[in-house]
Structures are given as C-alpha cells and as structure tokens.
Amino acid sequence: MLLRLLAALVVALFALPVQAQQADLLDQAIADATRTFERALPQLGAAMMGVDTSAYRDALKARRFHSARTGSARDVIFVIEDSEKGSCAKFAAYVAGVANSDAAHMFLCPQFFTPGADLLRETTILHEMVHVVTGTDECQAMAYTAQIQMLARGSFVPVARYWKDNGCVGSRYKLPG
After folding, report:
1. Pair type for strands 93-96 and 73-80
2. How far is CA 6 from CA 13, 88, 125, in A?
3. Taking a C-beta distance cutoff of 8 angstroms, is the pair 112, 90 a contact?
4. What radius of gyration do the chain's Cα atoms show?
5. Phi, psi (degrees; rounded to nearest 5) at 81
6. Please, which residues have CB within 8 angstroms of residue 65's CB and are 6 or more apart in sequence?
7. How remote is the C-alpha of 146 from its chain's centroid?
8. Enclosing H/E stretch for 57
9. What DSSP assignment string belongs to 61-117?
C-alpha cells in the first residue's frame, strides 16, 4: 500500500512540470497565432472565405465569440490530451463538440507539444480556430490559415500533401498563389 502511494506521488510530481511546460507552449502558440492574425487583420474585410473576422478574432484573443451557427456566445476551451489514440493518432489537434456544452473544445494532442515545433503550433491554432468558428471544412481551414500567414509575412506553411489528401484541389477554396 505504501509503495502504491509513493509511486502515485512520484508520478504526480513529474506530471506537474510537464503540464506546466505544455501550458507554456500553448500560451506561446496562442500568442504567436494572435500576432500573425493581427498583422493580417488590416487587410481583411468583415469576412474572408466564410470566416467572420470579428468572431475569429474574439475566439483567438478572448476565447469567447458569438457563433453565427448557434446564435449565441460560445467559449473556447483547450483540452490537453495525453494519449495518441483516437483522433490524436492522426492530428496535432482537433475540435470536437462536447455534449451539453456551450463551448467549442479544442483538443491538443501530444504531437502538438513536440519540441522545436513552434510554427506547427501557431499554424495549428490558426487552423483549428477556423473549425471553432465555422465548422468542419478542412479545405476552408487550410486555405484561411495559409492566407492569414501570407498576408502577415509573405509566405505560408506548405500544406500541399495535406491539401491533396483532403480532396481540396477541386474545392472552392484556394491556397495563396
């Protein structure tokens, strides 16, 4: 019994720094994504590619936005996953509904926290916020993210394979030329 208690205490002590480190990486990713979006903002209209600019900005900066889909205010809640199972087997993050919730939940997978992947984290936050605000269209989320990055810095994270794998080549959305 004492050994189990001691083992649980050791696991808990090591888990706290990991969780704090993940929270720091998440905060940095949100700050990076916000800076990139703010640089692009003067070139955006009220909406771009079906994404309401004000709702997106509020979701990114305030973690609360007015949803045109639900007609009400929604919170953005980040959930750190510790397993590479389910959707985390394929993605760095994903947005999913949670029953009886007035919030959009963004689940962050272990690969989101890969050391040295700052640009992946920023891109992931920008991309997933499109899903938070508008829905599940991967082509829309990729095109919007690429356009925000292009407007902000003159280039975007290459997504050609992901674009093709998701059938976006023939979609109504286009990557920056």
Report:
1. unpaired
2. 11, 31, 38
3. no
4. 18
5. -90, 145
6. 54, 55, 56, 58, 59, 73, 74, 76, 132, 133
7. 14
8. helix 53-61
9. HTSEEE-TTTSSEEEEEEEE-----GGGGT-SEEEE--TT-SEEEEEE-GGGG-TT-
What are the tokens at 131?
Answer: 């899903």
pLDDT tens for the 177 residues of the chain, in order: 433 333 333 333 333 345 888 999 999 999 999 999 999 999 999 999 999 999 999 999 999 999 887 888 999 999 999 999 999 999 999 999 877 788 999 999 999 999 999 999 999 999 999 999 998 999 999 999 999 999 999 999 999 999 999 999 999 999 998
Task: Please answer whether residues 78 and 26 qualify as being in contact, where contact means their C-beta atoms are separated by less than 8 angstroms.
Answer: yes
